[in-house]
Structures
1.
Amino acid sequence: MRTCLYPTTGGSYCNAYRNITVGTWGLAATDVKDGTAFIVQFAWSTQGSIAS
């Protein structure tokens, strides 16, 4: 999975894909300012939930 960020200053960027094991918690992004809009993308079809 990867996280694409949409800062309030404009523009957008995505971090590199990260592997997160099913059934575990994983870190999607770091050093993100409060209030930054984001989406989560998966490299392949998945089934499950995302907590925010």
2.
Amino acid sequence: MDWSGRTNVDRRGDEIALRVLEGVADADDRRISDLPPLYSTLDPDALGALFRRSDSDLRVVFEYDDKTVTVREGGRVTVDEGF
């Protein structure tokens, strides 16, 4: 299943990390609890800190659970098939 969407979230890191998990889980019609830990790929707190402290057009792209995840300023999360 190819899922791509954007979701605005509060800039708090835990909410950005949750949006990442929700997007990846939705992409394969799975539950968040079925995914590997996000912290195995990146530090969710560091991701949140980047977006709390940035006033520019920040974009972070990483691979997680065979998906390409893009997080943009404003908390927009996009999930696509892997790199």
3.
Amino acid sequence: MSDTTCHMSISLDGFVAGPDQSRDDPLGRRGRELHGWHLGDPRATDADRTATGWLMRPRGAYVMGRNMYGPIRGEWDEDWSGWWGPEPPYHAPVFVLTHHAHEPVELEGGTTFHFVTAGFDAAFSAARDIAGDQGVDIAGGASTVRQALAAGVVDELTLDIAPVLLGSGERIFDGSETFGFEPVEVLHSPLSTHVRYRRTGAALRQSRQDGLRNLEDAAE
């Protein structure tokens, strides 16, 4: 599947992470409550297991922000290789947005983190080139997803809507004026309502027009 996907857990009030994210609490205060459906809550059902399959399906490459990769800010002043241990779940190249250059980090299972300082468009272009027919996933966090939505590159967006109110934290739709997706599949459990959206035809046409316009501008 060559589509670009994005799969995010979200609260009823629109937050994908709680406030005060830190090394000890990477999802922010109460942020883990959004993820019980795939993190071992005994109330999980077959719907949650199906959605977990959507989340974990192999992709050809990933794009993520530095906050998703780890808690270090500013210059790289310590050795860090991600939250996931020696074998991250990606098993593919991961392009990390950062303002500070860093050599690639190669880990077990085929995951290599590449650090991109030229912005989202450059990271997405590199991911798309290497992913080929296997497609790209926008892995998070909130800022990276916002950039992907603004760029119009997401073909399929899955939201796992937890029955939780966080009150504050990180949102993915701040600054968005239109949605441009329609639901194509809905599953639910006591822990989450899983909605799989596809980009509408009108949004797809607009994205293609914008892409052609960008190519024309680059050629001038």
4.
Amino acid sequence: MKQKESLWQKIIRRFYGMDSPLNDYQRKQINRIGNNTFLILFGYILTSNVVVAFLTVTRQSEVLVDFIFVNILFILLLIIGYIFPAMNRLHLYDKEVSSGNYTQILKGIRWRSARAGIWFCIYMWFVNRGLDWFFDGISFTQGLQSFNGYWRAILGGVIFGFGMYMFKRINSKKRI
């Protein structure tokens, strides 16, 4: 009997971009990558908090915004610069597909990529409306009337969906 996957395992799979349930090798490697990432982030957080504590004495208002942007940038660079290449190097993204159901798998990848692009489009539209309101004082109803906002969200969704499709298609290895 197959054991049901826990919510935490589903979250881990989603974060690391895995489609199928994790086997023991994948779980072990993901735990190793996650532990390395935690140690890097732990050192960064300790160092950055000490630096920020000293900088807030002189420039309080500027330090908070700078600290938030530097943290976001560092975390994104860590994910792109360490986790993604480590997962590729260990071939954890690779998905072997038999030649009989390759076209069916590609259709599924197209549908999932289109759905991801649509969700990204919706998310970006709401984020842009919130940022316009917070920084520029543009009301939500004015944002509804902005064609430029719709265009940016749709373009972002198309690019994101296409990127997801290419990523998943490249990592689908056809077995002969």
